[in-house]
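Work package 3, deliverable 3.1, input record:
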Amino acid sequence: MIRIHNLSKSYGETPALRHLNMEIGRGCIFGLLGPNGAGKTTLLSIINGLTGFQEGEIEIFGLSLAGNIRQIRSRCAFIPQALAFYDNLTVIENLRFFAGIQSIRGAALEQSLDHAISVNRLQHLLDRKSATLSGGEKRRLNIGIGLLNNPEILYFDEPTIGIDPESRNDILTTIRSFREENKTVIYSSHYMEEIEKICDEVAIIHHGRIIRQDSLQDMLQQGGRRSVIIELYHPDPARLSRITGIMPELRLLDEERLMLPSQDSAGIAKLLTLLEEEQIGIRQIRYRARTLESLFINLTSHGEADA
Amino acid sequence: MEKPMLRAMLTKEFLLILRDKHALAALFIMPSIFILIMSMALKDTFSSDRAFVSYAVIDQDQTTISHEIASLLRENRTLKEYRQTVRPGKDLQDALNDDLTFAVTIVPGFSASLASEDSTVPLKLDAASDVQQNMLRLFKGELTGILMKLRIKTLLHELDPLLPGIAARTDARLMDQSSLITVQFNGLEESLFPTSTQQSVPSWIVFGMFFIIIPMSTIFISEHRQNTLMRMNGMNISIPALFTGKIVPYMVINQIQVWLMIGVGMFMVPLLGAPALTPGHSVTGIIMVSTGLSLAAIGTSMLIAVSVNSVEQATTIGGILNILFGAIGGVMVPKFFMPEAMQTFSNLSPMSWGLEGFLDLFLRGLGAGAVLTESLALAGFGGLMLLLAAWILARRTGNGL
């Protein structure tokens, strides 16, 4: 359904995507995972025809993107990270506007509206001004607008940023439901647990390159490791760096979280001793099963990223 | 552009404007208030009844002729008789130091002198120390004209026994200045001299129409920043379609502004005591000029909208540009008050072209043919701005939007 071959894109001298190759089949929920600035949004913009590229080929529905952009776009929907609708219009006015500019009319219009409204549970919000919606409701409207043209491919760019866990679950459930409609979804995010929840296939993108692409299951089986996450109580950075100097396998997840990429009891004991010596308090210790997060950290913090 | 698409774009734009109270105030209330205020404020300046010069007559002759001099001066509506009786000496000096400009003293024996062979007319003129030379010349000219009339009248009466009826036949013509000189104001008859309303309504129509720069550019920038433009691009909306969706609603808004403000000039301004607007007789002409102005204003708005990065920049640049165009183009100060060089310079402002078009229609009573040049120039200017805006937008976004 989507075939990308040797795609490269630079902004001036700065490469954004480097020799990307990717194939995505119909009905697949495809996760695009990468840290901020990895090139996910650039890739989505390119395959949506919103940004040009210097090298490579893209085929969607068997058509080359170059020269068929209008035809391809009419069968796709891009749900941007930003809330791309009008705050001063009501929910129904926004939906009608975006349907109107796609020349959806008559019975098809009513059908599209009904579908977008029911899938995103917007029924009770139709006459509310969009500015007055909650974060989660706004996100649902943002997705609803994308469904109006009954797209075969949906591109989601970090659609759950800044919303509460309940709304996030709602959105993930909605996206998962597209599988039943045989729609293809490309889901870009840096939230690994979301990718784990909904995706069939995953590509990890880092510094503009795809460093791993596989089915989620295979990726977890082959690469995911058991790990231990230790949450610390206001650690002194200098003391913490002494510990990571002694145990280089440790990964600093953030200022207060350490990850030991194994559940080896000797390693855990050594770490606990060092923390005690450095008088760093422990808030919590969590044992984690194989996760995308541990694989992701492994891949992006080792040489593989720059291979 | 398909109908549902156009309908959706128009509906959206209208809803956004109608819900923006500040934009509505700027587009409709502000220019209407300006029209009311300026028509009232400039009422006297444009009025032919306005007396600019005060004078007093000290009649020491007390004859029919001396009374006639006072009476003829009183007929001149640009002169105002001093509010109190002035006597020669200190009284006269005090009045001249106050706000009396001229004092005409008709000395005893003046009437006899006028009828005699003696060419010396003992009429004395005192002027305030700050009076300008051109004003003095004008007043002397007025007095000279009156004296000439009276001298001829006296001579004709002396000739009457020899040529019976000559005095009666000539008298009326002699006193009627309009039979001697026909005055036209730039093609307009003297009786149709521009009033404050005739001047202010077209000026503030033009200014108000250009005020769409602010709401139009701010809405566009918000669309850009909220990524709705990017989303529209993803839905295959091209730049021409996007621009059409902007041009049409704002042209309709501009038309509503024009007719609303004409209505204010015709019906509201008279309620406040200023003269009513007479909008000429060419509806086609008004539509032509206002359509041209619309395109110019919309083109300028779009150019600003695609060239700046924030609503604050658009508001500042749009506001400044509007005021500059207005100041240069004769909106703030009528062009005929400007020095010649400034009048030439003012032709650089598209507001000046629109204003001239409306003045042709409202003041000079001309038809559509007379405003064709201004309308085409404005439309051309607008088209050029839109092309430039489209080019910049295409460059900034790299691929269409």
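The interface with chain A takes residues 2, 4-5, 7-9, 11-12, 15-16, 19-20, 223, 226-228, 230-237, 398-399, 401 of chain B (CB under 8 Å).
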